[in-house]
């Protein structure tokens, strides 16, 4: 299992403690990451800061620095949370492309590389999972505000008017 602190944004990579130290940190970040509400997640962050702030300074500093970004998914529909919590969705898309371009070892022209990349991504897209809660996308596009994964009532009233 990947330790939850490793799921923090790449901007904290240099401040992240080594894996051997992370083994000592309990899985408290999971309680942050899987809290039901944004307030509960912020409370769990505060508990983590108080409990481990002295012993794991870099991890706590990284968590504090990117707290808002880490909790941004609470402003989207709850059905989308699984997709938004993914550590690196872009990487899986381009893994196939990277694998093929490494194998060609620079033997392609710019034009043929573009064609190959487009073809590989189009072929890979056939196996992608569908977005959970796709019915919520029109609400997001219209600008409806979500609080803890649920459309706020005042936003729905404004939309109805």
Automatic annotation (TrEMBL):
Protein name, per record: Mutator family transposase
Example of a GO biological process term: DNA transposition
Species per Swiss-Prot/TrEMBL record: freshwater sediment metagenome
KW DNA-binding (keyword) present: yes
GO molecular function: DNA binding; transposase activity
Statement: the UniProt record of this protein carries the keyword DNA-binding: yes
A Pfam family per the record: Transposase_mut
Keywords: DNA recombination, DNA-binding, Transposition
């Amino acid at each position: 299992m990947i330790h939850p602190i490793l799921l923090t944004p790449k901007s904290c990579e240099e401040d992240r403690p080594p894996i051997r130290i992370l083994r000592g940190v309990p899985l408290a970040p999971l309680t942050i990451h899987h809290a039901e509400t944004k307030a509960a997640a912020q409370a769990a962050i505060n508990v983590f800061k108080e409990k481990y702030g002295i012993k794991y300074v870099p991890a706590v500093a990284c968590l504090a620095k990117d707290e808002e970004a880490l909790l941004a998914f609470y402003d989207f529909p709850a059905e989308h949370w699984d997709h938004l919590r993914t550590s690196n969705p872009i990487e899986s898309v381009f893994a196939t492309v990277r694998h093929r371009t490494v194998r060609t070892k620079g033997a392609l022209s710019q034009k043929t590389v573009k064609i190959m990349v487009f073809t590989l991504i189009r072929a890979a897209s056939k196996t992608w999972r569908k977005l959970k809660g796709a019915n919520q996308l029109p609400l997001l596009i219209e600008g409806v505000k979500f609080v803890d994964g649920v459309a706020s009532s005042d936003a729905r009233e404004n939309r109805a008017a």
